[in-house]
Amino acid sequence: MHVAVVFRVLGILLTLFSGTMLVPFLVALLYDDGAQYAFLTAFAITLCTGLACWLPVRNRIGDMGIRDGFLITVSFWLVLGLYGALPLMIADEPHLSPVDAVFESLSGLTTTGATVIQGLDNLPESILFYRQQLQWLGGMGIIVLALAVLPMLGVGGMQLFRAETSGPVKDSKITPRIAETAKALWYIYMGLTVACAMAYWLAGMDAFDAIAHSFSTVSIGGFSTHDASIGFFDNFAIELIAVFFIVVSGISFTLHFYFLRRPTPRSYLDNIECRIYLSILLVVSLVAWFVLYIQGDYGLAGALRYGLFATVSIATTTGFATTDYSVWASFLPFLLFFCSFAGGCAGSTGGGIKVIRLILILKQGHLEIKRLIHPNAVIPIKINDQPVPDRVMEAVWGFFSVYILVFSLIFVAVLATGLDLLTAFSAVAACINNLGPGLGQVALHYGDINQLSKWILCFAMLIGRLEIFTLLVLFSPTFWRN
To answer: pTM of the entire structure?
Structure first.
């Protein structure tokens, strides 16, 4: 363990993060909304802390190991959640308590989208912008952004990339150099954000709302500047734009990179994870359309409109809303909610278990059935016509097993705080899958639940964003042995 290197990188990253607080500071000046002091104070505290970590070890240059990468990643997300909460505590509005501020900050950075704030329409514009910005930074992972900068500062980045990226295969790079990979991903991410903001603006949003919602759309975060979320605009064109960019953002950014290199639909359709992902959204949307129509709550067009939006928003773990889907009758709310366990594709901004893991688990189950019939047969598991290494399958099953165990333990812990069964189950699932809105008491917001459950759910959001093992590895005694 290279403690000096860890502090040096952590100081650099925290100093970079402090600079992001100057953007909402400028927004506060532009709108003269009274929150300037909060952002300036938070910027100064965060910058001083970053410099205090970096200055004593600024000349200690060395190679980062795998353990250093994990420690930096987890430490940075924890520190980010704490320092990101400062403006929300200092500002006169919303002036949150420490637990609520940390919950809101982590919810934004992990792109969970669970909020404790009521009355969003009355908040200062700079606070609203800051919440959206947190989700945008967390969407691709601010550490991946930093990877494009760290090589210029003499710090390697592959260990950070391994700890930060999602999915069962961590070592694939779309370009030979890790910094170039990070830049390529961020160029795509920024391009989608700009395109989304322009589309929202052309469809009728004002410039502020268009930019703010583009941040939470492309990041698959779900924060909004209005209590009614996307439903505030009551605009079908805006809803279709949101659906399109959510679906696109839920696809692996590696596929987007290959599509830009070779613009053909086969870049997506030849990938089994992308096909299954799109198929799930299509089939569940049709089911939602049918159920809403036969229930008689909406006409044919209305059922399609609300069913499609709710399916895409919930299944991809975005969390936007045009109506309260939790009050729909029949099994539909539970179907949509359970779809969020699959989430998006590996390498996307979506949460959940990831579609590729579910595909591999189902393929393994099918293989076991074949082995019962042909016990001596050697049948490899293939993805996109390529055999899957045994090590990857072991990792997938290990992830799934630990996911179920951790989910169960957190669920029991939240139940012990006094929440009812439905609220506790949906809150844990919504946080660990980085979805946001749940069912029961947390269908609209998390402001009314007790403080202890909020701290537990903060842990669930973090462990979900870091895909469990990145955080749990720090609890292993082996990790700390030399």
So the answer is: 0.91
Residue type, 108: G
Distances 438 to 62, 228, 287, 389 between C-alpha atoms, Å: 45, 15, 20, 36
Single out the residue of 412, 431, 415 nearest to residue 423, CA to CA. 415
- Separation CA 305–CA 294 (nearest Å): 15
The predicted-structure confidence for 3-62, as pLDDT tens digits, reads as follows 887 888 889 889 999 999 999 999 999 999 999 999 999 999 999 999 999 888 877 766
User: What is the C-alpha separation between 77 and 118, in angstroms, rounded?
Assistant: 25
Tokens of 282: 């299509």
- Cα gap 149→128, rounded to integer Å: 28
In the chain, what's the furthest Cα-to-Cα distance? 74
Peptide bond into 124 cis (omega under 30): no
Tell me, what amino acid is at 302?
A: G
User: How many Cα neighbours within 13 Å face the side chain of 14?
Assistant: 31
